[in-house]
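Show me a record, fold above all:
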Amino acid sequence: MARSDIRLAILAGGSGTRFWPAGRRSRPKQVLALDGDDPRPLVELTVDRVAPLSTAAPWIVAPADLSKELARHLPHLGKDAYVLEPRPRNTAAAMILTAHVAAQTAPGSTVVALPADHHVRPAGRYRQVLAAMAARAKKSDAIVTLGLKPDHPATGYGYLEIGERLEKRAVGDVYEVKRFVEKPDARRAKRLVSGGRHLWNGGTFAFRPEHLLREAAEHLPEVATPIRAAFEQWGKRGFKAALKKAYDVVPSISVDYGIMERTRHVETLASDVEWDDLGSWDAVARHRKPDADGNRMRGDVTVVDAKDCVVDAGDGHVALLGVEDLIVVRTKDTVLVARRGCGEDVREIVKRLEAEGPEDLLR
């Protein structure tokens, strides 16, 4: 498939509340350096990883109030690279918006939409997988998802139940998707993996814009209809106001729940690339190089008799003495100390601060 036929859409609208206090409203997780020991922010890593797939610069799909912060980390991308939402409305609205932009500006293209916050290696193999997904989507009457062959019973990912094999490809076979499975508990995850008919849901999609918009109109009209109405003003002075009006009424719904779980026109390419959803400090720890005592540290850290801790020292200094299994994150105005394994629950602190303050710890 020609590189000129592929358009890349990097979904960069997440808030990252599980990465507080490093992540804030004005500094979401996609601009943090969270992938292993690489000093680059996640969104820059993602752009560098996938940009060779297309002759066109990737689109960065994000709420408008994040555009300046994202542009600060992506100075080589021009303003036309940004597909900006008036406000956050989850992935269904972001994908529908992207499909409309592609239909208007790149007719005949195939879109590959992927999150800005995933760990994937090796990059070359990953690009081959995405190219194969795009090629399949171009000729298939379906949306093609990325499925990852599970190597352990993970409870932090969603799963895809696969059906008939539809096509053999060098980088992975293509299967029909029978259903999406929500994040399971440990017992069910073990059953899913041992059964051999489930893949991890990689949250990445290849589609022709008209196909995505057709499925959205059928299965999610409460999001699709207002956005479609706004695009009647495309190219006119009133488009920005019309899109804002649409986003005032569309609900916040994920594309998995709103479209993928409801359509019969979805396929998956089963890949064996190394992949992880970097959704918490615990996930980050999996990809950082440990010291002799299992500590995974970034920044200026002094350790005495400490084991298996995850530390981000920020611009200051952190010292650990006689402790084990802690997450410690320091910023200029606060410190998080949590037990490892509780990374998913950091957002509960954010909820408490939203209810009780102080507000400046969230901005």
The chain is about 30% helix and 25% strand. The first helix runs from residue 42 to 50.
